[in-house]
Design brief:
seven-stranded mixed β-sheet; alpha/beta; single chain
């Protein structure tokens, strides 16, 4: 499926180590004609890390998309009634956000965007990036895998020796995962290195 002309919400959470690669993929989607709508979690819009400053991430998202990022719960809620997105992707989705999503908690702009978008029976794609994916968060990932209209970018262990519970999605699979989700299908194989 061609993503040209598709309205794609990209919701950023605080797994900053993935931002550089993720931004590259999103930039390519925009160059190829997708319309990008950035959304930032409270952590993503405010925490400075060794991977960069939030102001830089916000600026880059706006430059790529041409849209001011959604940064408040009240700004994300209209995604539901206006139904303007074709697909929403949480890229990256931290373990904290996955746990809250699996349990119906909507206390950040990203979670409100997800809730609002899912009410329209449209696809939500998750790019998991968490140090406890094979630990305490596995039950939440399992719940999300079995939830209607939720799809995952294929993922695997990012450092099985030093961080055996850590999972991260594969950046190069973002586009095919979005394309398949728009067809109501999960990109396979889901697991791999």
């Amino acid at each position: 499926m061609d993503l040209k002309g598709k309205k794609i919400g990209i919701a950023f959470c605080g797994s900053f180590c993935t931002f550089d690669k993720v931004f590259g993929e999103i930039e390519q989607l925009a160059k190829d004609g997708a319309e990008i709508y950035p959304i930032f979690s409270d952590a993503a819009k405010s925490i400075e890390s060794r991977f960069g400053k939030p102001e830089e991430f916000l600026k880059r998202a706006e430059e790529i998309s041409g849209h001011k990022p959604i940064m408040k719960i009240a700004e994300a809620e209209p995604i539901g009634p206006k139904s303007y997105l074709d697909i929403l992707a949480i890229i990256p989705c931290t373990g904290n956000t996955a746990a809250k999503l699996a349990n119906g908690i909507t206390d950040t702009p990203v979670l409100m965007a997800a809730k609002a978008h899912l009410r329209n029976n449209k696809p939500l794609v998750i790019f998991i990036s968490t140090n406890d994916g094979l630990g305490m968060n596995m039950k939440n990932i399992g719940l999300l895998l079995n939830t209607k209209n939720i799809y995952f970018v294929p993922f695997g262990q990012d450092d099985a020796q030093k961080k055996p519970n850590s999972l991260v999605a594969h950046c190069e699979k973002i586009r095919p995962a979005l394309e398949m989700a728009l067809e109501g299908k999960q990109l396979q194989p889901l697991l791999g290195s």
